[in-house]
Amino acid sequence: MKKEDKALVIENIAKTIKEYAGFYLVETAGLDAEKTSALRRACFGADVKLMVVKNTLLHKALESLEGDYSELYPVLKGSTSLICTNVGNAPAKLLKDFIKKDDTLPALKGAYVEETVYIGADQLDALAAIKSKNELIADVVALLQSPAKNVVSALQSGATKLHGVLETLSQKEN
What we know:
Layout: H1 3-19, E1 22-27, H2 33-45, E2 49-53, H3 55-64, E3 80-85, H4 90-101, E4 107-113, E5 116-119, H5 124-129, H6 133-173
Antiparallel strand pairs: 1-3, 1-4, 2-3, 4-5
Helix pairs in contact: 1-3
């Protein structure tokens, strides 16, 4: 590959990484064509981008970006696929489902999610447990609504009790 071509590929990888909130590095060398196609379809369905990249080009792309990705450099060995995502836990859930079907591959090498680096396949469960931005917003809204719901409920139950007392008193007078 010519030096100019490498520069374009590095720039393309860096541009792709910048477009997404996080990325995963996955070992996919042992997948046959059928399993690779299934993984690509699953990624497309989960709205994540899958790219097979050369380690040296990915290393240079990460160096060109702002931020410290040096913890990920040691895992750039063998065949590496880059999975980019805007939802931090989507690829982890996808990989867990994929591994349930065939427990040998793909193997998580590392990930950069929510400005944190995760190294090793044992981090897959932790990554799957990360809540997305929308899930966190929903949790906060639910927490904020809870006190208001309690107040409304208390007022409604008080009104019902008061109505019952008044109804009883009006019937006694008759």
